[in-house]
Design brief:
alpha/beta; Rossmann fold; eight-stranded mixed β-sheet; 15% strand
Length: 424
């Protein structure tokens, strides 16, 4: 039996537009004028453009006039029929020549390059390479955190023709573009972040990601000799408009509550904005007089924002993360961040690419699981996340998809830790 996930998006403020663009065909019929000329070509009859031909100066008048008139009517009818039948193949030919280009192209929209460097360093090259190897063209663009830009990119892609769309949602703009794509009969893959309407959802098991974050924080609290039930823990959640953030929280909140942890502060960070995350955490820190035992930060970027505040105040507090980014792993190795979660994006990108290639080939691929997105059941494909501590950072490098090398990771103060752990 496939896995089924349920996401309650009733509290998530999607801005998906209900405007669907439907194509309408307008057929215009030309009026043809039949002219009597000195010479009549019985093999070809072409429609005359208005004002192009002149009436013949010689008009045949005879007792056969009635018969000639009958022939004239028949000729006019024959010419009109010939024109319509020849125009149809021309239109069909033009549509046929445009169809292969659109049918063989995957259109991909990434959300930004600020919340995580994975989108440009990992997802883009992996998807582009997989599609190219299968012989398909791809158009991959990044909205850089701008929902208006996202919608503009979507409109331009649809106007240029897409055989399938792979969309990472950005505050509901993915859903808006998806509605337009679906109205044109184009299949949509919701990539990494869930939304509806979509034909497929490809991501990691995001509830499991949250569970790993909760487990990691509990391990770090125990290492500091802190009773979870008495711990002063704060939540620095992801964006309230991201369905994934809701699943992450479901995972870590359930795990921590089972151990007796109740957050003393629980805040979400709009758009996964690291700068705003730092401001929100600093206010938490101030409100609590710096008495914080642990920070459940939803990803490495937000974790880094919390660490910057801790550093400023000369404190080392267990902080979680996610994505196994360069800066995140450096913080893990320095002991400033207790863990991260490695999501091998090569697996996720491969899953999305396989679905896209099958759809471009006219197939209807099956999915092993489903996810309920706001009451809509969407076929889903999940990859498995891995928890990362200092001792298994090498696993990230060994996967070959980190987007950075050991030489880039092991710099400055981190170099000594890498040498001690044998990271290379």
């Amino acid at each position: 039996m496939g896995t089924k996930r349920s996401i309650n998006l009733s509290s998530i403020a999607f801005s998906a537009s209900s405007r669907a663009i439907g194509g309408r065909e307008h057929v215009q019929q030309d009026r043809h004028e039949c002219k009597v000329n000195d010479t009549i070509d019985n093999q070809q009859a072409q429609p005359a453009r208005k004002g192009q031909h002149r009436m013949s100066k010689r008009i045949i008048a005879s007792v056969a006039g009635l018969a000639a008139a009958s022939l004239l009517v028949a000729a006019c009818s024959s010419s009109s029929t010939s024109t319509e039948s020849s125009a149809a193949p021309a239109a069909s030919s033009a549509a046929a020549s445009a169809a292969p280009a659109a049918a063989g192209k995957a259109c991909v929209i990434l959300p930004d390059s600020q919340s995580s460097d994975r989108w440009e360093n990992q997802d883009r090259p992996a998807i582009e390479s997989a599609l190219a190897e299968a012989g398909f063209e791809s158009d991959i663009q990044n909205a850089q955190g701008d929902t208006n830009q996202y919608l503009t990119i979507g409109d331009q892609m649809l106007a240029g023709g897409c055989g399938v769309m792979i969309l990472v949602d950005l505050n509901g703009s993915g859903a808006t573009v998806a509605e337009k794509a679906k109205a044109q009969g184009i299949a949509v893959i919701a990539y990494d972040r869930p939304f509806a309407p979509a034909d497929y959802y490809v991501s990691f098991d995001n509830v499991k990601v949250g569970q790993l974050q909760g487990e990691g924080l509990l391990k770090c609290l125990a290492a500091n000799g802190i009773d979870p039930a008495a711990a002063q823990v704060v939540f620095l959640n992801g964006s309230p408009t991201d369905g994934n953030a809701a699943m992450f929280k479901e995972g870590y909140q359930t795990t921590l509550e089972a151990a007796g942890v109740k957050p003393v502060k629980d805040e979400s960070v709009p758009d996964w904005d690291n700068q705003q995350g730092g401001v929100i955490y600093e206010q938490m820190f101030t409100d609590l007089g710096g008495k914080i035992d642990g920070v459940l930060a939803a990803n490495d970027g937000l974790g880094g924002s919390a660490i910057a505040v801790n550093d400023k105040n000369g404190l080392t507090i267990p902080v979680t993360g996610q994505d196994a980014t360069l800066s995140g792993l450096q913080n893990v190795l320095l002991g400033k961040q207790c863990m991260s979660v490695f999501k091998n994006t090569a697996l996720e990108a491969a899953d999305a690419s396989k679905l896209a290639i099958a759809l471009l080939n006219g197939e209807s691929p099956a999915a092993p699981a489903t996810v309920d997105v706001g009451g809509v059941s969407v076929p889903a494909v999940y990859s498995t996340p891995v928890i990362i501590y200092a001792e298994n950072v090498q696993d990230v490098l060994n996967a070959g998809t980190a987007g950075f090398t050991a030489a880039e990771l092991c710099v400055d103060d981190v170099a000594a830790v890498c040498e001690e752990l044998g990271i290379k």
